[in-house]
Description:
globular; single chain; about 140 residues
Amino acid sequence: MMNYEHILVTVNLTKINQEVIDRALSLAKATGAKVSFIHVDIGCTNNVSILKEGGDTPAEEISKSKSELQRQLQALADRADYPITNTLVVSGGLRYKLEETIRKMDVDLLVCGHHHNFWSRVVSSVRELVDTSPIDLLIVHLDD
């Protein structure tokens, strides 16, 4: 078995995440690797509600949204039966944000989930990651 030192787990904050997290934690326990969670909000501006008179500014809405995502990600980390080194919520392009984080945090394994359904065959982030990941990639098959 490859001896990984730092595993980065992509988390999309759905119930199905637990399968991806469990697989990563199992590997981390076997190798003693550090584990970090990351959520990439690729549609950050889509979370901004239409402003009403007296409402928050777009920047305040984005900040509130990011804070809520960070809270949810930290809750997952708190429930893990293994120490989680970092919980990160970032906004932007998935591939670029993951590559940047991998470099900055010296990650050597990326773990993500993949649904086998019609939409995943048409539009899949995993396909792009397979083609561009600078490190080993573990793809966990997820049932819908």
